[in-house]
Design brief:
It comes from Leptobacterium flavescens. Pfam families: ADH_N, ADH_zinc_N_2. GO terms for molecular function: oxidoreductase activity. There is one protein chain. The chain is an alpha/beta fold and about 325 residues long. The protein has helices at about 40-50, 55-65, 130-135, 135-150, 165-175, 190-195, 230-235, 250-255, 270-280, 300-310, 320-325; strands at about 1-5, 15-20, 30-40, 75-85, 95-100, 110-115, 120, 155-160, 180-185, 200-205, 215-220, 235-245, 260-265, 290-295, 315-320. The protein folds into two domains: about 1-135 and about 290-325, Quinone Oxidoreductase, Chain A, domain 1 (Alpha-Beta Complex); about 135-265, Rossmann fold, CATH 3.40.50.720. The protein has eleven helices and 15 strands. The strands form three sheets. Strands 3, 4, 5, 6, 7, 14 and 15 form a seven-stranded mixed beta sheet that branches. Helix 5 (about 165-175) links the parallel strand 8 and strand 9. Helix 4 packs across helix 5 and helix 4 (about 135-150) packs across helix 9 (about 270-280). The chain is globular, with a radius of gyration of 20 Å.
Length: about 325
């Protein structure tokens, strides 16, 4: 089968299309024929190995100290189950599904084996494979953090970095929960953020969102570059500051706050949450935001575009042409 493989950390050019052995499912696994996957900022960070100091050593130990231990990236996918291990319940051959691979990675390939108890859900019939593939990472994380903030209808939320993967879901879910949303990103993403429900948008290059007179019940910082003290000042009493990328110094400072709360707990991916997001998408309550779609062969180019900072929402990797060639 074809897969995008990388044998060393580095720029997008380290990603190479290669022929690799097709996996065979074990008794507790399912074999999925991948129809679509995505390129997330996390995929790019692992490929280049650019992480904050707090995570550098543990992630090197996890992914490979001198060179990648996991050769195929890809954190989320949608496809069709081709084979089912004899100890797997709940799935059958031919089921259309979407899934998160988490630290296993491996979605940049024609086939992938995942445990039957992994974060896999049946794909809604009305949702295309490429749109289903972008749900898990951004959707599950945005849902997790917003629930942790315990939002109340009518509260005001500031979403810093609303134009990306997490951000596009955070805006829509915040609106679904009844919040007044102010979203921050670059100028070219403002219209997209308005189109998915943001009540107010701010171009970060023109004004500092935390230096305005406005205060918020929740600040959801997806970028991690804003001043901690400025964000805390912009919170109302009993306000919640969500850090999608926890920084140790900020976590420690947050422990000493009395009338405001800092949230930094990482998400645990749950099948029931994936089903919940799929239902919202099927009902039209949230939608997939796909900026561009690339064939598997152009995954390196997709990485370059994500790292350019111009991406609006999500980037899909389409494998349907490979399926059609074999039919």
């Amino acid at each position: 089968m074809k897969a995008i493989v990388f044998d060393q950390y580095g720029p997008p050019e380290v990603l190479q299309l290669k022929e690799v052995k097709k996996p065979v499912p074990k008794e507790h696994q399912v074999l999925i024929r991948v129809h679509a996957t995505t390129v997330t900022a996390g995929d790019c960070e692992i490929r280049a190995f650019k992480f904050p100091l707090l995570y550098w050593l543990p992630l090197r130990l996890m992914f490979g100290f001198f060179k990648p231990r996991i050769k195929v990236l890809g954190q989320e996918l949608a496809g069709v189950i081709e084979a089912v291990g004899n100890k797997v319940n709940g799935f059958k051959t031919g089921d259309p599904v979407f899934a998160a691979t988490t630290v296993r990675m491996g979605a940049y390939a024609e086939y992938i084996c995942l445990p039957g108890n992994a974060t896999i859900a049946l794909k809604p019939e009305e949702v295309s494979f490429d749109k289903a593939a972008i749900i898990p990472t951004g959707g599950l994380n945005a849902l997790h953090y917003l629930r942790k903030a315990d939002p109340k209808k009518g509260e005001k939320i500031l979403i810093i970095g609303g134009g990306g993967n997490f951000g596009s879901f955070a805006i829509q879910l915040a609106k679904y929960f009844g919040l007044e949303v102010t979203a921050v990103d670059s100028a070219e993403k403002l219209e997209m953020m308005r189109s998915i429900g943001a009540d107010h948008v701010i171009d970060y290059s023109r004004e500092d969102c935390t230096e305005k007179q406005e205060t918020y019940d929740i600040i959801f910082d997806l970028v991690g570059k804003s001043s901690f003290s400025a964000c805390i000042r912009a919170l109302k009493v009993k306000g919640r500051y969500i850090m999608a990328t926890p920084v140790l110094s900020k976590v420690i400072k947050g422990m000493f706050l009395k009338d405001k709360k800092v949230i930094s707990q990482l998400a645990k991916y749950k099948v029931e949450d994936l089903d919940y997001l799929a239902q919202l998408m099927e009902e039209g309550k949230i939608k997939a935001v796909i900026d561009r779609s690339y064939p598997l062969e152009q995954t390196a180019e997709a990485h370059r575009y994500v790292e350019s900072g111009y991406k609006k929402g999500n980037i899909a990797i389409d494998l349907k042409h490979l399926i059609q060639k074999k039919q």
